[in-house]
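User: Sequence recovery, please. Input:
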């Protein structure tokens, strides 16, 4: 692989008509994909389309999806994930943008703690969603030793923890991501698309759009695009332990 999209959702229905063609195009363009599950059904589909050569599985429960599940069902899914041996835990985290209920926010904190414990147990990175809850999420993360990837992080940029930050192609029209890239060391940057979402032109996103992200990072960092590509590829391979 020459590139990596570390956060995509190729299992979503948006790809039902041409998923095989999209995956073949990823292979042709040498773009590896870390495909993130969001609930039990999604996790099984993620595993079904993973070949661990181009498409790699990350398994988790999206914070708002976890609120729909019983504690027992969440714990059962955590053990399913543990046995599946994904390359990462994700997509998990906290979302206070859509969830304003204080009791449900407390449940999100507890659920994220369970997934952080799982990431530590499996010794794999964890991909964190933190919309509207960036400060609270970082506070919780500080109590664990998991290898953290902040997905689409748009929170405060002062005193950022030593985490990895995955940068979407939305950087092309989002000043917050551009400011984040200027702040974070190249050694801590990764690329993502959140496909099928976050395409600046409003069409369905695709993993090979990470090339545009790399070009923009190179521009902002005043670095050669090939140097950025190689550095981010090395960051990814090392973090996810990909051969």
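Assistant: Recovered sequence (243 residues):
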């Amino acid at each position: 692989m020459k590139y990596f999209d570390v956060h995509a959702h190729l299992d979503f229905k948006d790809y039902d008509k041409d998923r095989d063609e999209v995956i073949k195009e990823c292979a042709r363009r040498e773009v590896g994909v870390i495909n993130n599950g969001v609930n039990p059904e999604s996790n099984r589909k993620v595993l079904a389309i993973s070949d661990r050569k181009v498409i790699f599985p990350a398994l988790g429960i999206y914070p708002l999806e976890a609120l729909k599940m019983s504690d027992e069902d969440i714990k059962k899914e955590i053990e399913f994930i543990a046995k599946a041996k994904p390359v990462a835990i994700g997509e998990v985290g906290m979302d206070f943008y859509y969830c304003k209920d204080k009791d449900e926010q407390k449940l999100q904190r507890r659920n994220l703690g369970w997934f952080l414990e799982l990431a530590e147990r499996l010794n794999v990175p964890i991909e964190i969603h933190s919309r509207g809850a960036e400060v609270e999420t970082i506070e919780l993360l500080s109590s664990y030793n998991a290898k953290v990837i902040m997905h689409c992080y748009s929170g405060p940029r002062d005193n950022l923890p030593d985490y990895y930050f995955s940068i979407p192609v939305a950087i092309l029209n989002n000043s917050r991501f551009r400011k984040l890239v200027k702040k974070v060391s190249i050694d801590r940057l990764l690329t993502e698309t959140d496909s099928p979402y976050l395409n600046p032109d409003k069409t369905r996103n695709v993993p090979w759009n990470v090339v545009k992200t790399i070009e923009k990072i190179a521009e902002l960092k005043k670095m050669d695009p090939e140097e950025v590509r190689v550095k981010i590829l090395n960051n990814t391979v090392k973090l996810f332990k990909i051969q």
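The radius of gyration is 17 Å.
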